[in-house]
Specification:
259 residues; alpha/beta; Rossmann fold; three-stranded parallel sheet; 10 helices; elongated; magnesium ion binding; Thiamine pyrophosphate enzyme N-terminal TPP-binding domain-containing protein; TPP_enz; Thiamin_PyroP_enz_TPP-bd_dom; flavin adenine dinucleotide binding
């Protein structure tokens, strides 16, 4: 098994069933490995790298499940950054899989195709966590860690960079396909009790929801109906409570209710 095959297998084990992508020479061996698993992962080919990342973002928000996209380094990666930064702002579960020039030329300034200075630094600045695979034996563990970081605490996009010469190098480590232990955000019991006390005393309670409540639609609905409180969604919270629900209100209406 080589690096590319190890990463593809880990994507499969993490439930990735489609990969939004725009192939290029630095990632050719990865797509050879992807072709071997086309019965499990469907490549969805975009015409521009921005499209790959925006499709991954949209799929992550629509399904609530992790999504992934793959692009070439340099200009290809930079083309995807508008969507990647939006994914960060939206707390979306997106994996950016980015190619890289040969490992022994990184940072040398040789002017190789798609070479840019400090690509990994830029990737780290737009994600919750990012790393570069520097040895074939890191492929499986680093891909697994990428998903653990993505899903732990506040969900956010993560990045994984792989130099083009590593794709075909053999790995000698067995893949860890056991369930990932996710660190849940800490719960402040005192804050919850205080919120319940204030809600119980409120004459006209109003619930404001954001994107962090997307996975708690039923809970928000139950609380709103219990309190008979209108629910106003911020931009990323649209859809937490069905717009057709009698307690769901738009931002302008919410402003009036708040006053």
């Amino acid at each position: 098994m080589n690096t590319a095959q190890a990463i593809v297998q880990m994507l499969c084990h993490q439930g990735i069933d489609c990969l939004f992508c725009l192939p290029g020479v630095q990632n050719d061996p990865f797509f050879d490995a992807l072709y071997e698993r086309q019965d499990t992962i469907q490549p969805i080919h975009a015409r521009h790298e921005q499209g790959t990342a925006y499709m991954a973002l949209g799929a992550a928000l629509a399904t609530g499940k992790p999504q992934a996209y793959c692009v070439v380094p340099g200009p290809g990666f930079l083309n995807s950054t508008a969507a990647l930064s939006t994914a960060y702002a939206a707390n979306a579960k997106v994996l950016a899989l980015v190619g890289q020039i040969p490992s022994n030329t990184i940072g040398k300034g040789y002017g190789l195709l798609h070479e840019i200075p400090d690509q990994l630094g830029m990737l780290k600045s737009l994600t919750k966590w990012a790393t570069r695979i520097e040895h074939p034996n890191q492929a499986g563990p680093q891909t697994r860690e990428a998903f653990r970081q993505m899903l732990s605490g506040r969900p956010c996009p993560v990045g994984l960079e792989c130099p083009m010469d590593l794709w075909t190098q053999a790995t000698s480590t067995e893949l860890d396909t056991s369930p990932i232990t996710v660190d849940a955000p800490p719960i402040d019991d005192d804050a919850i009790r205080e919120a319940a006390r204030k809600l119980g005393q409120a004459a006209n309670p109003l619930i404001v929801v954001g994107g962090g409540a997307l996975d708690a639609s039923e809970e928000v609905k139950a609380l709103a109906e219990l309190l008979q409180a209108p629910v106003v969604a911020l931009r990323n919270g649209r859809g937490v409570l069905d717009n057709r629900h009698e307690l769901s209100h738009t931002l302008p209406a919410g402003h009036v209710l708040w006053r």
